[in-house]
Amino acid sequence: MQVSENHQRYWQKNLRITAILLAIWFVVTFVVGFYARDLNFDFFGWPFSFWMGAQGSLVIYLVIIGYYSYYMNKLDQEHGVAEEE
Fold first, then answer.
1. Phi, psi of 23, rounded to the nearest 5 degrees
2. pTM for the whole structure
3. pLDDT at res. 2
4. Could you give the CA distance from residue 11 to residue 14 in angstroms, rounded to a whole number?
5. Cα separation values, 16 from 3, 41, 49, 59, Å
6. What 3-state class would DSSP assign to 43?
């Protein structure tokens, strides 16, 4: 099966955005969580470590999911593989 140049570009962009968002997820989940105690400053009136553990990472996860959905819909339309309603 021959893969067209359009499909290769689509797949490369898909892999790139997935890698970027996974890197952000890793930093938010593990790096910030691991070093949160060392980051002693107030964020919206709460200690940063508490805020990241309780709310911050969840908000970032929702932003990642929302952005991925938006980007992939745009990419699907750009490459002509969007689902019809």
1. -65, -40
2. 0.78
3. 75
4. 5
5. 19, 34, 30, 22
6. strand
| Amino acid in the structure at residue 16 | R
What's residue 1's pLDDT? 62
- DSSP assignment, residue 1? -
Question: What span, in angstroms and rounded, lies between the C-alpha atoms of 56 and 77?
Answer: 32
| Of residues 26, 51, 30, 48, the one with CA closest to residue 38 | 48
Query: What 3-state DSSP class applies to 45?
Result: coil
What's the half-sphere exposure (Cβ side, CA atoms, 13 Å) at 82?
14
Task: Give kind and range of the element (H or E) at residue 46.
Answer: strand 46-47
d(CA 48, CA 45): 9
In this structure, the strands spanning 42-43 and 46-47 are antiparallel
Cα 60 off chain centre by: 8
Supply 11's token pair: 């797949």
Indicate if the pLDDT at residue 67 is higher than 90: yes
